[in-house]
Amino acid sequence: MTRFKLPQTPGPIGVFDSGYGGLTILKSIREELPQYDYMYLGDNARSPYGPRSFEVVYDFTLQAVNRLFSLGCHLVILACNTASAKALRSIQQKDLPYIDADRRVLGVIRPTVEIIGDITQNFHVGVLATSGTIKSESYNIELQKFYPGITVTGQPCPMWVPLIENNEFQSEGADFFVKKYIDQLLEKDAEIDTIILGCTHYPLLIDKIRKYCPNHIKLIPQGDYVASSLAKYLKNHPEMEQCCTKGGKCQFLTSESSEKFTENATIFLNKEIHAEKIAWDF
Ligand code: DGL
Q1: pLDDT for residue 226
Q2: Is the CB of 18 within 6 Å of ligand 1?
Q3: Global pTM value
C-alpha cells in the first residue's frame, strides 16, 4: 500500500534505469513520440544492478517506480533489462493493484522479443546482457513462448556497464572486454545470426561490438522497438494516453550528483541537459 496520495492529474511518462543506459531508450522514445513530457530517473548511486540479487533489484526498482508515480507519472517504462527481468512481473502482478490499479509499468524485454522472428533466418539467437538478466533466463523463456524450439544462447558481459558508467567505453582498453564476451558467445553457438543487445547500456558500445562480430550477424539494439511498442500501446490505451501530458519536455533525475549525471548524460545524448539530484528515501 502506498504511503502517499498519488497525484491524479496527468503527468510525464516515467523512464527508469539503474544509470545512464536508459538514455538510449529515452532517445528513441522521444524521437518517435516527441509530443509527450518525460521524467527520466537514473539510480546512478546504486548502479550497476546487473550483479545484484533478485530481492535487491526488485526493492530498488519498486522504490523508483513509486517515486516516479509520486512525482506525477501514470506510466513508467523500465528502460533496464535487469529491472525488467527481475522486477517487472512482481510489480505488475503484486504491487500495482495496491499502489494504484490504473497506473502501468512496462518493460523492454517483450518489445524486443516480439520482433526477433522477423529478423533471424535460422533461429539461432544470442543475447548479450548483464549477469542478472542472463541468470534470470527471461529472454530464453520469452523467446521460447513466441518461437518454440528457437536456440537462445546467453552471454553475461559484467565489465561492459562499468566501462560505460565510467565513461571508458570509447577507450582502447574497452576493446579487450568487448572482444572477450563476443568470442565467448560465438564459441557456444557458431550459428548465431542475430544478437540482442539485452542491456540498455550496450548501444553505447555498438561500434566496438560490430568490430568484433562477423559481418553477417545482425545486432539488435532495443530503443526503436521499445519506442514503436510504446506508440502502439498509447494508441490502444486512450485512457492512459490521456494521463500523459504533452509539452515535449524532459526532466532528468538522478540519485547521484547532478553535476556528474549532467556531464555524462550530455555525452550520451549528444546534447546538453540539466539533471537534478533526488533524495532517495521518501
Ligand atoms: N542498463 C541496464 C540493463 O539494461 C542495467 C545495467 C546495470 O545496472 O547493471 O540491464
Answers
A1: 98
A2: yes
A3: 0.94
C-alpha–C-alpha distance, residues 164 and 67, integer Å:
25
Q: What is the mean pLDDT of the chain?
A: 94
**Residue 122 burial (CB count, 10 A):** 11
Grid cell, residue 36, equals 509527450
In three-state secondary structure terms, 250 is: strand
- How far, in Å, is the centroid of ligand 1 from the Cα of 104? 21
Residue nearest to atom 2 of ligand 1 (CA): 80
Residue 131 near residue 103, CB atoms below 8 Å = no
Whether the CB of 133 sits within 6 Å of ligand 1:
yes
**Torsion sign, CA atoms 233, 237, 240, 246:** positive
State the average pLDDT over residues 145-161.
Answer: 97
Catalytic site includes residue 80 = yes
Nearest C-alpha neighbor of 156 from the set 115, 182, 180, 128: 128
Strand runs labelled E in the chain:
13-17, 38-42, 75-78, 104-106, 124-129, 151-156, 194-197, 218-220, 250-254, 275-277
The closest alpha carbon to 128, from 216, 50, 15, 47, belongs to 50
Is 199 among the catalytic positions?
Answer: yes
Strand, helix or coil at 195?
strand
Q: Identify residue 140 by its one-letter amino acid code.
A: N
